[in-house]
């Protein structure tokens, strides 16, 4: 590091520092609009409170216990206040009160006859589950079936009735379609011999595929073996579906071929 220690006459007078240039201050073109909106839309006394507040007199200073809630004053014991109407006066000796009509009914005999002819109440069933003989109601214990007392007990649910109706309508629609097809001579019914022959043929084909499937290699290490195994399994599943479909429907209709 080098330090300039040489003296020079030109360094005796410091150079003049030029004044810094002041940037022009930005002024928004909406400033006047904002001032007007603030002036006319501002809520008065919103943040600083009311401009003029009423001051209490010096004699009306805040006293002790004036902010506490007090119960209503009770009337003095010497004065009685009657808020309800008074009862009627007591009749005198000269006034005869109106008595009820005398009845000749024998209440003892009537009560005795009523008790004799009354149907005795059935005792509620109870149970005991402690050595001391404490009893409890049997209905509230859960030991008796309560569902048998429901209004819908023993009745067919509505959804089953709806399902049965839909199945009946579908069967009628199918019968109507078959009848129309017979009238147009487009469908024929398979005979029992034809149905049996088709069923036997499907079973024979399944037996043949099953025999081939049993002869496959245990290890399917090549794509050809894997593809053959999958093909035989798919054909056997399709035959099983066809056999089940024919055995399930004893009456079968087929389209008539020209």
UniProtKB/TrEMBL annotation:
Residues 52-105 are annotated as: Disordered. The gene is 100637510. GO terms for cellular component: acrosomal vesicle; axonemal microtubule. Keywords: Cell projection, Cytoplasm, Cytoskeleton. This is Enkurin domain-containing protein. Residues 60-71 have a biased composition (Basic and acidic residues). It comes from Amphimedon queenslandica (Sponge). Residues 162-254 form the Enkurin domain. Its main location: other. It holds the Pfam family Enkurin. GO terms for molecular function: calmodulin binding. It is found in: Cell projection, Cilium; Cytoplasm, Cytoskeleton. PANTHER family: ENKURIN (PTHR21490:SF0), ENKURIN-RELATED (PTHR21490).
């Amino acid at each position: 590091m080098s330090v300039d220690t040489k003296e020079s006459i030109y360094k005796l007078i410091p150079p003049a520092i030029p004044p810094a240039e002041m940037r022009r201050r930005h002024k928004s073109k909406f400033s006047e609009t904002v001032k007007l909106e603030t002036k006319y839309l501002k809520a008065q006394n919103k943040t600083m409170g009311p401009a003029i507040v009423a001051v209490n007199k010096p004699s009306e200073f805040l006293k002790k216990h004036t902010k506490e809630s007090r119960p209503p004053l009770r009337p003095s014991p010497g004065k009685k206040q009657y808020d309800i109407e008074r009862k009627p006066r007591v009749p005198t000796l000269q006034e005869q009160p109106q008595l009820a009509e005398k009845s000749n009914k024998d209440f003892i005999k009537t009560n005795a006859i009523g008790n004799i002819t009354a149907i005795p109440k059935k005792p509620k069933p109870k149970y005991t589950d402690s050595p001391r003989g404490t009893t409890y109601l049997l209905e509230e214990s859960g030991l008796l079936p309560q569902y048998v007392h429901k209004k819908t007990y023993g009745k067919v649910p509505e959804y089953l009735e709806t399902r049965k109706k839909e199945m009946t309508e579908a069967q009628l629609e199918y019968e109507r379609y078959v009848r129309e097809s017979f009238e147009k001579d487009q469908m024929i019914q398979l005979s029992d011999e034809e149905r049996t022959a088709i069923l036997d043929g499907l079973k024979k084909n399944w037996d043949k595929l099953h025999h081939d499937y049993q002869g496959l290699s245990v290890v399917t290490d090549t794509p050809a073996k894997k593809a053959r195994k999958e093909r035989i399994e798919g054909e056997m599943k399709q035959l099983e579906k066809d056999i089940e479909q024919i055995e399930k429907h004893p009456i079968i209709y087929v389209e008539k071929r020209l």
